[in-house]
Write a structure and sequence with these properties.
The protein is mainly beta. About 10% of the residues lie in helices and about 40% in strands. Bound molecules: 2-acetamido-2-deoxy-beta-D-glucopyranose.
């Protein structure tokens, strides 16, 4: 279902998380996209560049609610009136962009648009890039402005202003733009990342951010992003730490995958897992899809991998060996996808080192509070509260 990306030397595909965003009609964006047949995947470029060392200081800890509108970032305009945007905080990409008043695409008509002339702090940078996603490219022109997220202020933050956006899926998205939180090396055009700006300008109390996704999201509350810290109220038990294996994505080694009591052996030569808040499902390497369907008793259908709804409680759980711990995904998380389908899909790309690549999307992140440690390049997992 993915478009070929063979024109890119390195390309990666992910699905945007549209799961928690509800529209007033009561249908989630994801449902609407599914209904419209446009539940598409995305892809993006890769570039490598190491992350800078952080000097801790008296920065902020900011809690951003993840609700029907995900999160808000405000780019301050000259008059003191902020231009506000809802952005997807995406650990699977690194570019920051918002729609601009130059954009004439349908997707820009129903979203907030940045007006450069209304901001005295805006500077054009001139360069243009295509930030590619599976369903098409967002054409951006680079500029810079003050970025604000509550008490976090980053001056002269580079940001992309969209000139053109594909209708699918951006027209359907409840967010206006995307704030990428992966490593700077992944940023198309080598542009400065928002997190890089926060670190350089000492805006975070600690060089850490963490995500909590509620298992039962409501219209008003889907979870929280904590920028600059963690909240022990939102998890229980010990934190399992896993080092980042490749500083592009928040990617860690996956030591084993078990189905029920059986270790599959799929990772006997090593596996990799990307922790991606911008992916909804759990994605499974293509070569393992058949086996996993068989083991879980699922059938491939036009609407996904169907399971017998009456059986879901007795189905085996999936367990992931990460950082020496065994992190289980209970049947309720792996199966109750709302349609009696498995909350999994095939991963469409090889990992850069040839090991099978999994993507731990929201389905997994609802079970595990996740800490992204930028000072030590490691990811922490703890059972969600
Ligand atoms: C972006 O893609 C479009 C369409 O393929 C192309 O015409 C344009 O030159 C590209 N822009 C850049 C900056 O690569």
């Amino acid at each position: 279902m993915l478009k070929s990306s063979s024109f890119l030397p390195f390309s990666v595909v992910f699905s945007l998380c549209l799961c928690r965003i509800s529209l007033k009609k009561g249908l989630s964006i994801r449902d609407q996209m599914r209904a419209a047949g446009v539940l598409d995947d995305f892809l993006k470029h890769i570039k490598y560049d190491p992350v800078k060392k952080y000097q801790p200081s008296q920065g902020s800890v900011v809690r951003e609610p993840i609700a029907n509108h995900l999160d808000v970032s405000a780019l301050r305009a000259s008059s003191g009136t902020p231009q506000k945007f809802l952005v997807l905080f995406d650990t699977g990409s690194s570019n920051l962009w918002v729609p601009s008043t130059d954009c004439k695409s349908p997707a820009c008509f129903n979203h907030a648009k940045f007006q450069p002339s209304a901001s005295a702090t805006f500077s054009p940078r001139g360069q243009s890039y295509n930030v590619s996603y599976g369903s098409g490219s967002v054409a951006i022109v680079l500029g810079s402005d003050t970025l604000r997220i509550q008490s976090i202020t980053v001056r002269e933050q580079e940001l992309g202003l969209s000139q053109e956006e594909p209708t699918q899926p951006f027209y359907f998205a409840a967010f206006d733009g995307i704030l990428g939180m992966a490593f700077p090396s992944l940023a198309v055009g080598g542009t400065a990342t928002a997190l890089g700006g926060m670190l350089e300008q000492n805006q975070l109390a600690e060089p850490v951010f963490s995500f909590y996704f509620s298992r039962q999201p409501t219209y008003d509350y889907g979870g929280e992003l904590i920028l600059g810290g963690t909240d022990s109220q939102l998890f229980q038990g010990d934190i399992t730490w896993a080092p980042v294996t490749q500083r592009l994505y928040w990617q860690v080694a996956l030591e084993e995958v078990a189905i029920g009591q059986s270790v599959t052996g799929w990772c006997s030569q090593g596996c990799q897992a990307i922790v991606d808040t911008g992916t909804f499902l759990l994605t499974v390497p293509q070569e393992d899809i058949e086996s996993i369907l068989e083991a879980l008793g699922a059938q491939e259908t036009s609407y996904g991998y169907a399971v017998d709804c009456s059986d879901t409680q007795s189905m085996p759980q999936l367990t992931f060996g990460i950082g020496g711990a065994r992190l289980a995904l209970p049947p309720a998380a792996a199966y109750s996808n709302g349609y009696c389908t498995l909350a999994i899909e095939a991963t469409y790309l090889p990992s850069q080192d040839g090991q099978p690549l999994w993507i731990l999307g929201n389905v997994f992140l609802k079970e595990y509070y996740t800490i992204f440690d930028m000072a030590n390049n490691r990811v922490g997992f703890a059972l969600s509260a």
